[in-house]
Amino acid sequence: MKSAVELTRELIRFETINPPGNEAPCARFLGKMLEDAGFKVALHTMGENRDNLVATIGRPGSGEPLCFTGHTDVVPLGVAPWTVDPFAADIADGKIYGRGSTDMKGGVAAFVCAAIAFASKVEETSGLVLVITAGEERGCEGANFLAAQGLLPKAGAIVVAEPSSNRVLAGHKGVLWLEGKATGVTAHGSMPHQGVNAVYKAARAALALEAFDFSPDEHPVLGRPTVNVGWLRGGINVNSVPDEARLGIDLRLVPGVDRERLLRRLSDAVKGDVDIEVKSTADPVWTEPSDEWVQKVIGIAKSVTAEDSPIGGATYFTDAAALKPSMGNPPTIILGPGEPELAHQTDEYCYVSRIEEAQDIYTRLIEQWRLR
Ligand SMILES: [Zn+2]
């Protein structure tokens, strides 16, 4: 049986930059390992060379399994040059370097190794389900695909192995992507008074969004919703009054926010300047830290890491937004060996010690689930 550190290095060597992803060889490699260990493995193809993997073990009818989840795709290398080979997975000073080491092949390797080591002991219990997705980095494509096709079993609890320095995070914000459209009247650039400038309208809307007050919607751990105008485009040529302009709006929502009410308030804030259309949305993920299983996870993580950090939320978004509702809405936490601030960075690395710690935590979680 290879170590989680060795498996992390093998996974980094699969080049799975998304786009285009090409996750299939990596998913099949993991599928073979899990099948050899006694798991029932299903590969779900969502595009050319793009496989999601669902592996299960356990006795049907004996309760809901514990779910571990992670993704195999990684983000592009960026424009800044790397000082290390991003796909060699070299180890130096206790760190494994490479694209995806932190986000999140270290996490996937840690739970796959923990699950394989326990395979024979969980066969006759409610067991485990491992959901290893493709296409996470471009909007949870794989998780959404599995959810939409009804390919996910119910789970009793979900561990998302995204980077958290092995801290327990109880959820994250949701996303609401909007597009605003301003309409004007075109005219010659020398006679602007004869037109209505759509760029001015879009700019006014952007400033109104910058000043938008979210204060009634504050969450005790995740804080306030945020808004960011990610792009603004309008006009065709310098000597015309532009009659159309558009802006892309990224809202991050916290649990408990009434989305329809918030949309109405936002529309009111930009009324007369732009019309707003919803482009994409995903709910926030949150499990109350007082949940019995979450409390057990906190205890186990503390006993392994000897660190006692307060419960937090992830700053980023995860596949749990799609998986949690379609797996029966079980308690869900984010806990993984990567360092959140190294995700998507040049010279990304993951501490070897964190991967070993994560495997230890996952092993104890599986044991606790088995003996429940
Ligand atoms: Zn990730």
Helix count from the secondary structure assignment: 10
Approximately how much beta-strand content do the residues carry?
Answer: 15-25%
Q: Spans with pLDDT under 50 lasting ≥5 residues?
A: none
SSE pattern, N- to C-terminal: HHEEEEEHHEHEEEHEEHEEHEHEEH
What does this molecule look like?
- With 372 residues, the chain is of the alpha/beta class.
- The chain has helices at residues 4-12, 24-36, 101-117, 119-122, 141-148, 198-210, 259-269, 292-305, 320-326, 352-370, and strands spanning 40-47, 50-57, 66-71, 91-92, 95-97, 128-133, 157-160, 169-172, 174-183, 226-234, 244-253, 275-282, 285-286, 312-314, 332-334, 349-351.
- The strands form four sheets. A six-stranded mixed beta sheet has the order 1-2-6-3-7-15, sandwiched between helices. The chain has a four-stranded antiparallel beta sheet with strand order 10-11-9-12, with helices on one face.
- The chain is elongated.
- The mean pLDDT is 96.
- Zinc ion is lined by residues 71, 103-104, 136, 162.
